[in-house]
C-alpha cells in the first residue's frame, strides 16, 4: 500500500503550522484562515538535512535551452511570445462556454503532429472529447487523451517525461489524496498545482492548465495560483457571438502586450485576419456613430462606438455601457457638462461598443465624448475620420501611444485621417487633425446632416 503524504494545517494570516484544523488560529486569533497543505518535504522525498546545491552560469543555462513548441496557430504563438516554453506552467481562464476547451483541443491537435502530446480531462469522458474533436476536425491518431481527477496520478504521469505537452482540463476538478477536502477548494487547488509544477519542472514538460472563473470574472481559487504559474492567459468576449480575445495577463517568457483575435465557427475558434473590416462591415453612418482607432496589445483595431441620448422618463438619468467601463462613462459625462455646452442632466445616455469588444484603454475617451455629443445634438462627423485620444477632467486631449499605427490602419480601410491629440515630438503626422480640448473638437468636427 502506497505511503500517504503528510499534511499540515497552515494559517494564511500569520503562517503558523499545526497538526490539526481549527476554526480559529491559536497564534493570531483570526477565524477561518487555516487551510490544509501537503508537506512538501514528504512529497519530494527529501530528508530533513539539506544538501549543497550545484549551480551553473547564465550562459550555460541559455545554451541548454530547449526549443519552444510552436503550434502553427500564429495568434496563440504571438501571445505566448513565440511558442510554448519547455517545462513551463501555463494557465488559461475564461467564462463558461467561451471556448477554452475548444481552442486547447485545436492546439493539442497541431502540436501532436510534431511532439508527444497528452490531453487530460477531469470534466468529460474520452468519448465526449472524441466527439468534439471530430466536429472540430481535430481527431488525430497522434493525440493521446485520458480522463482523471487525481492530481497524484497526473503528476506521476508528467514526471515520467514521455510527453512534451500536457493539457489539464481543469485544475478545479483535481484533488490530492493527502488532502481531505473536496476538489475545487483552496487547499486542493494550491496543492494540485504544486504537485503538477514540481513534476513538470523536473521532467521539462510543458503544461497548460484550464482555470474556472468566478461570477465577477476573476480566476477561481487562491491568488497564489496565478503567482505559481509562468503564464496566465485570459480568453474574453461574448460567449454567444462576436470576437474572442486571447490576452496574456502574465508572461515570464514574453510580452503581455500581444492579443489574439478569434471568431467561433463550425471548425472551432479561427483567427480573424482583418478584424477591423469585419467590425465595420455593417456600420450605418448616423448621429451617435463614431469609429474608434484602439489598440489590442500592439495591434491597431477599428471599432464602432455607438451612443444613444434620450430624455429620461425617471426621476434621475440612467447611464448604461456595453463594452466600456461605466464609471469612466460617468466621469466623461460629468466632464462634458462642466467643460462644454452639453446639458445631459435630464437625458439617459447609452454607450455600445460593436462586436462584443471590451475597450479598456483611455484612448477611447475622445471617441466616447464625440459619440455622446453627436447623439445629443443629432449631428455627424463632417469628415470621414477615425477618433482617438485620452481626455482629462479639464477637458484637455492628451497624448496616446501608437498614433501612427492607428492612422495606418484607418487609411487601409478608406478613412481620410484621424482626430486626435498633438504628436509629442516636433514631427507632424500626415492625416492627423490635432485637437487640444474636447469643446473645440465638438465645435470643429460635428455638422448637421
What does this structure look like?
The chain has 449 residues and is α/β, with parallel strands linked by helices. It has three domains: 1-45; 65-271, P-loop containing nucleotide triphosphate hydrolases (Rossmann fold, 3-Layer(aba) Sandwich); 277-448, Ribosomal Protein S5, domain 2, CATH 3.30.230.10. Helices cover 28% and strands 26% of the residues. The chain contains 13 helices and 23 strands. It has helices spanning 40-44, 58-63, 74-80, 100-112, 126-136, 151-159, 186-203, 224-228, 275-280, 326-339, 365-377, 403-412, 438-445; strands spanning 7-11, 17-18, 34-38, 89-94, 117-121, 143-147, 165-169, 206-211, 231-237, 243-251, 259-265, 268-271, 289-296, 299-311, 319-322, 347-353, 379-381, 385-387, 390-391, 397-398, 417-420, 432-434, 446-448. Strands 6-5-7-8-4-9-10-11-12 form a nine-stranded mixed beta sheet. The chain has a four-stranded mixed beta sheet with strand order 13-14-16-15. A hairpin with a 7-residue loop joins strand 10 (243-251) and strand 11 (259-265). The radius of gyration is 26 Å and the shape is globular. 40% of the residues are buried.
